């Protein structure tokens, strides 16, 4: 490893040597930890392949399609990482990761399958008595050190994230002008792409869980919230200000990336829907305008005005922080929708898709939930004087 000195003068040589020494010590520590953890990782992959994949294949306890759905590409991953381990133990880091990155597609396949893998495994443990006994027996072996199969299957996903951090540390302590730096940087870029895919998949899975949760809260099947490209953003109680100055009533709102859903609670004594909500109206956000009518006085909360092409909605809250959060969430969702729509139009103004599709908007901040049972106090500022146009 060589490093390029930049300072000059009699003291420069001393400082350069110190910096070079720090780089080399950090590089050595990182490399040592990488090799040690790679050995442990390969040992764990071997456990899965030896005591589960190979024996299950021989015994026929699981159908081939079910077995492949659970274990996916883990056998080929084990083969790839055995080769990587040999290179790392020889100190051939650049060659090892160059070869490893040529087979990253096996990890991509595994990453994309991991959620389904866990579900199928859970079903087999519950319904397949022979497999349940087999699994328990294998996990009781001393080699497993009390690990369950559920603990071991996510390891390839976790390892990709670890490779990213190791490669970052190695490149940061390598001379930027060296061939080694170029090779490690290339590997870091490839691994980072898979790491990002893992994060995107996790977010997408969490989003689908939120959409299903909200769908189960709604009475009947008339209101559909599960759809492609839709992201859950937040939910909460707000009072709607009706026309003619009548009293503002609390409604439960669910905000998604492209629509705002207004609901009302079902009667508490209803035998089946007492804990659910009835959908009242779905407001598309694409052409919405969000404004604060007032909200500077903490004791009074605030009022939001949402203007749609064919409707206007006034939302009130006595909680200043809550109304500010809603304003930010709604403004962000509307802004992203309109921004993406503008970009699409600029790319191809003649494309029919520009006017028929709603671009997906991912949440930019953590989704907010509240206790649905806590209906806000209906007392407070009434809707008198506020007119819905």
What does this entry look like structurally?
This protein has two domains: 13-211, Dbl homology (DH) domain (Dbl Homology Domain, Chain A, Up-down Bundle), CATH 1.20.900; 218-356, Pleckstrin-homology domain (PH domain)/Phosphotyrosine-binding domain (PTB) (PH-domain like). Helices cover 54% and strands 13% of the residues. It has helices at 12-59, 64-71, 74-89, 93-101, 104-127, 129-139, 149-152, 155-172, 179-217, 320-347, 353-356, and strands at 232-240, 249-256, 259-265, 277-284, 289-294, 302-308, 311-317. The chain has a seven-stranded antiparallel sheet with strand order 4-3-2-1-7-6-5. It is flat. Residues 1-8, 344-360 and 378-389 have low confidence and may be disordered.
Please count the helical segments: 11
Largest sheet: 7 strands, antiparallel
- Structural class of the helix and strand makeup? alpha+beta
Q: Give the overall average pLDDT.
A: 84
Count of separate structural domains: 2
The CATH topology of the largest domain comes to: Dbl Homology Domain, Chain A
Strand order of the largest sheet: 4-3-2-1-7-6-5
CATH architecture of the largest domain: Up-down Bundle
Radius of gyration: 28 Å
Question: Layout of SSEs?
Answer:
Blueprint: H1 12-59, H2 64-71, H3 74-89, H4 93-101, H5 104-127, H6 129-139, H7 149-152, H8 155-172, H9 179-217, E1 232-240, E2 249-256, E3 259-265, E4 277-284, E5 289-294, E6 302-308, E7 311-317, H10 320-347, H11 353-356
Antiparallel strand pairs: 1-2, 1-7, 2-3, 3-4, 5-6, 6-7
Helix pairs in contact: 1-3, 1-8, 2-5, 3-4, 4-9, 5-6, 5-9, 8-9
């Amino acid at each position: 490893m060589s490093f390029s000195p930049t300072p000059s003068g009699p003291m420069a040589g001393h400082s350069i040597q110190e910096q070079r020494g720090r780089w080399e010590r950090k590089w050595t520590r990182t490399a040592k930890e990488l090799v040690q953890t790679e050995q442990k990782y390969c040992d764990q992959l071997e456990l899965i392949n030896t005591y589960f994949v190979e024996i299950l294949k021989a015994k026929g306890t699981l159908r081939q399609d079910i077995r492949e759905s659970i274990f996916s590409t883990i056998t080929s991953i084990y083969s790839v990482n055995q080769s990587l381990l040999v290179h790392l133990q020889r100190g051939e880091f650049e060659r090892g990761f160059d070869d490893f990155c040529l087979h990253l597609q096996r990890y991509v396949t595994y990453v994309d399958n991991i959620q389904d893998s866990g579900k199928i495994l859970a079903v087999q443990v519950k319904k397949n008595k022979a497999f349940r006994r087999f699994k328990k027996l294998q996990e009781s072996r001393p080699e497993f050190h009390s690990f369950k199969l559920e603990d071991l299957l996510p390891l390839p996903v976790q390892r990709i994230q670890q490779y990213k951090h190791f490669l970052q540390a190695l490149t940061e302590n390598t001379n930027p002008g060296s061939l080694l730096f170029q090779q490690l940087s290339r590997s870091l870029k490839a691994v980072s792409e898979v790491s990002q895919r893992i994060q995107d998949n996790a977010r997408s899975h969490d989003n689908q869980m939120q959409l299903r949760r909200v769908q189960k809260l709604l009475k009947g099947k008339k209101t559909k919230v599960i759809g492609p490209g839709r992201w859950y953003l937040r939910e909460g109680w707000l009072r709607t200000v009706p026309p003619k100055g009548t009293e503002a009533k609390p409604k439960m709102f669910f905000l998604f990336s492209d629509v705002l859903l207004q609901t009302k609670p079902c009667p508490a004594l209803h035998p089946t829907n007492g804990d659910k909500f009835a959908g009242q109206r779905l407001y598309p956000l694409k052409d919405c305008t969000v404004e604060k009518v007032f909200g500077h006085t903490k004791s009074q909360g605030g009022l939001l005005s949402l203007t749609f092409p064919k409707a206007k909605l006034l939302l009130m809250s006595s909680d200043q922080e809550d109304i500010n959060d809603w304003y930010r969430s709604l403004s962000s969702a509307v802004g992203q929708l309109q921004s993406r729509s503008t970009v699409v139009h600029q790319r191809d103004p003649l494309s029919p898709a520009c006017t028929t599709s709603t671009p997906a908007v991912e949440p930019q901040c953590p989704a907010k939930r509240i206790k649905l049972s806590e209906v806000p106090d209906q007392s407070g500022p009434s809707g008198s004087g506020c007119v819905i146009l």
